[in-house]
Design goal:
Layout: H1 26-35, H2 50-53, E1 60-64, H3 69-80, E2 84-88, H4 94-100, E3 109-112, H5 115-123, E4 127-130, H6 142-153, E5 156-164, E6 167-174, H7 175-181, E7 190-196, E8 207-208, H8 218-230, E9 239-245, E10 247-249, H9 254-264, E11 277-278, E12 280-282, H10 283-295, E13 301-305, E14 311-312, H11 313-324, H12 334-341, H13 346-349, E15 353-354, H14 357-361, H15 371-380
Parallel strand pairs: 1-2, 1-4, 2-3, 4-7, 7-9, 8-15, 9-13, 10-12
Antiparallel strand pairs: 5-6, 11-14
The structure holds NADP nicotinamide-adenine-dinucleotide phosphate.
NADP nicotinamide-adenine-dinucleotide phosphate binds near residues 132 and 248.
Length: about 375
């Protein structure tokens, strides 16, 4: 049985429809009413948009990469607001998914690891979030580079195989394919896909917003392909939000999980020159931004997922040293990082100053606009 919990029939029936969703088309409403997912719930909205400030639909959200650093927090947020979640995991990750989301503590979570189950989950969801992707801060061999790209572009749920005349055909069904085959008024009405600020390339002098052109390095290429694949979703039926994510700061993953132990051993300091830009966002703000993108129709197209005050890496390291009570005194030379990571060193040695023009225009309210406060909040959890 691939799906672990499928909203067991012993569970109370969903709340009756108390207030119509104002964020959906008539077609979408009738589909949700049929599934009985609409209800009135108190809003903890972080963003602008009157349309959702007073009412909200209960959502069922299918998430790829839900077992990762960002996904885990997003699942917690959705469940805390009484929504339902389908974790779309690779079949090789099923055990990991079951231990990250044990049925005892996550009764509202469905884990799907097979093609047909991904398909059913997506069809029965009101929204889909795509967070899957192989980590990029590794040494880049040609194979790794290919996997970095393919793991994002294919967003492969499962390889379907069939044979004709002894020829084995492999057919990849992606999240986008599943959304498209379940659209036409049914299936998800919103698709939120991760991409990254690497889209803009790197610069020590320029700043970038959503209207800036793409860069010409490998990560920019990956982001363009990644976004291009997401754009193949049928946008006449599905609202597409592409979040160009900056460096996500949180205790349990991403860049800080690697940096904090070094600082605690009195061995922390900037990587390379320290003058490179560091466009960061606190994990809670990013999760709020994804959440808002799911429920607020004003959120559409490209949105930079960064805090409004990017810093240079040396400032980040100084502030981090201050909040963990350790000096930031040991700069790691760029050459050493290049020896370790090869071409992948660009991830830490080069940066870009990215400003969240769209989120600001939408009235998104950041809990942590300044890196000092973000780091203080994270240090309190250590
Ligand atoms: N964290 C950041 O600072 C940051 C910054 C910019 C962009 N992003 C992007 O945001 C997304 C989520 O980030 P994250 O930090 O939460 O990532 P993460 O912790 O590395 O988790 C990503 C998830 O993707 C799936 N995955 C891993 N390798 C894969 C592969 N080879 N093929 C297909 N799926 C694979 C895994 O889920 P299953 O094992 O359950 O399938 C994994 O849990 C990623 O695409 C990342 O590139 C993150």
């Amino acid at each position: 049985m691939a799906i672990r919990v499928l909203f067991p029939s012993s569970q109370p029936q969903p709340q009756p429809h108390l207030q119509p969703s104002r964020s959906s088309t008539t077609t979408r409403r009738s589909s949700r009413q049929r599934r009985g997912f609409c209800c009135f719930c108190s809003s903890t909205s972080s963003g602008g948009g009157d349309e959702v400030s007073s009412s909200s639909s209960m959502m069922t959200v299918s998430i790829t990469g839900a077992t990762g650093f960002i996904g885990r927090r997003l699942v917690d947020k959705l469940l805390s607001e009484d929504h339902k979640v389908c974790v779309l995991t690779r079949s090789t990750s099923k055990n990991k998914a079951s231990s990250v989301f044990p049925a005892s503590r996550y009764p509202g979570v469905t884990i799907a690891d097979k093609e047909g189950d991904w398909e059913r989950c997506i069809r029965d969801s009101t929204g889909v979030v795509n967070l899957a992707g192989m980590p990029i801060s590794t040494r880049w061999s040609p194979e790794v580079k290919s996997e970095i790209l393919q793991s994002r572009v294919n967003v492969t749920s499962k390889v379907r195989s069939y044979s004709t005349l002894l020829v084995l055909h492999l057919h990849h069904m992606s999240v986008v394919d599943h959304i498209n085959t379940s659209s036409n008024g049914n299936g998800p009405s919103v698709f939120v896909s991760a991409t990254a600020v690497g889209y803009y390339g790197t610069s020590e002098t320029d700043s970038f917003d959503e209207s800036s052109p793409s860069g010409n390095d490998y990560l920019a290429h990956v982001c363009r392909e990644w976004e291009g694949r997401a754009r193949q979703v049928k946008q006449e039926h599905v609202r597409l939000v592409l979040i160009r994510i900056g460096v996500v700061l949180g205790k349990d993953g991403g860049a800080l999980a690697k940096m904090i132990p070094l600082f605690m051993m009195f061995a922390g300091g900037p990587l390379g020159t320290g003058t490179q830009w560091f466009s960061w966002i606190h994990l809670d703000d990013l999760v709020d931004l994804i959440y808002e993108s799911l429920r607020n129709p004003a959120y559409t197209g490209i949105i930079n997922g960064t805090a409004p005050n990017p810093v240079r890496l040396s400032e980040l390291c100084d502030r981090l040293g201050q909040v963990v009570g350790r000096p930031s005194w040991l700069p790691v030379p760029g050459l050493a990082i290049k020896a370790l990571l090869g071409e992948g060193a660009t991830v830490v040695l080069d940066g870009q100053k990215v400003l969240p023009a769209k989120a600001t225009q939408l009235g998104f309210s950041y809990r942590y606009p300044y890196v000092r406060d973000a780091l203080k909040a994270i240090a309190k959890q250590l």
